[in-house]
């Protein structure tokens, strides 16, 4: 069974950088044709796709967040990372990693709450 586990600081100050980790088990982030994404859902709002890692090593980003976002991965650790800088209060959300692209996902982690404080 595929499992994804997000981790990171729950509270980040405004203007600082967020760093999240997604550890995957039961599948490989280099499985052929696989995408692994970060999404977030602010309270009371729809989920928003942040970006994705393609199995071949390419990265794709939501244009609205691309200037502040970086996704990377460690194949040996089967782990994906998210960095988002210049945090704002609007970045407060539940952050998830998924096995999927910007349109759909098949597996999702339990999520990690990120709150941006002033």
3D architecture notes:
The protein has strands at residues 3-7, 11-13, 18-25, 35-41, 48-54, 59-61, 69-74, 79-84, 93-100, 105-108, 112-117. With 118 residues, it is mainly beta. The strands form 2 sheets. Strands 2, 4, 5, 6, 9, 10 and 11 form a 7-stranded mixed β-sheet that branches. The protein has a 4-stranded antiparallel β-sheet with strand order 1-3-8-7, with no helix packed on it. Helices cover 0% and strands 53% of the residues. The chain is built from no helices and 11 strands. The mean pLDDT is 97.
Give short descriptive properties of this protein.
53% strand, globular, four-stranded antiparallel beta sheet, mainly beta, 118 residues, 11 strands
Which helices and strands, and how do they pair?
Layout: E1 3-7, E2 11-13, E3 18-25, E4 35-41, E5 48-54, E6 59-61, E7 69-74, E8 79-84, E9 93-100, E10 105-108, E11 112-117
Parallel strand pairs: 2-11
Antiparallel strand pairs: 1-3, 3-8, 4-5, 4-9, 5-6, 7-8, 9-10, 9-11
Number of strands: 11
What's the overall geometry?
globular
What order do the helices and strands follow?
EEEEEEEEEEE
Distance between the termini: 40 Å
**What's the mean pLDDT score?**
97
Number of helices: 0
Structural class: mainly beta
What is the C-alpha radius of gyration, as a whole number of Å? 13 Å
Question: Which percent range describes the beta-strand content?
Answer: over 45%
Major sheet, described briefly? 7 strands, mixed
Helix proportion: under 10%
Low-confidence stretches: none
Short synopsis of the structure:
The protein is an all-beta fold. Helices cover 0% and strands 53% of the residues.
């Amino acid at each position: 069974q595929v499992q994804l586990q997000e981790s990171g600081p729950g509270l980040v100050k405004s203007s600082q950088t967020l760093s999240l980790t997604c550890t995957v088990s039961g599948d490989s982030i280099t499985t052929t044709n696989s995408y692994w994404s970060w999404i977030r859902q602010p309270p009371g709002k729809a989920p928003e796709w942040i970006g994705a890692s393609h199995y071949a090593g390419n990265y794709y980003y939501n244009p609205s967040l691309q200037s502040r976002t970086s996704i990377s991965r460690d194949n040996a650790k089967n782990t994906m990372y998210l960095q988002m800088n210049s945090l704002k209060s609007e970045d407060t959300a539940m952050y998830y990693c998924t096995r999927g692209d910007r349109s759909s996902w098949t597996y999702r982690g339990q999520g990690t709450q990120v709150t941006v404080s002033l």
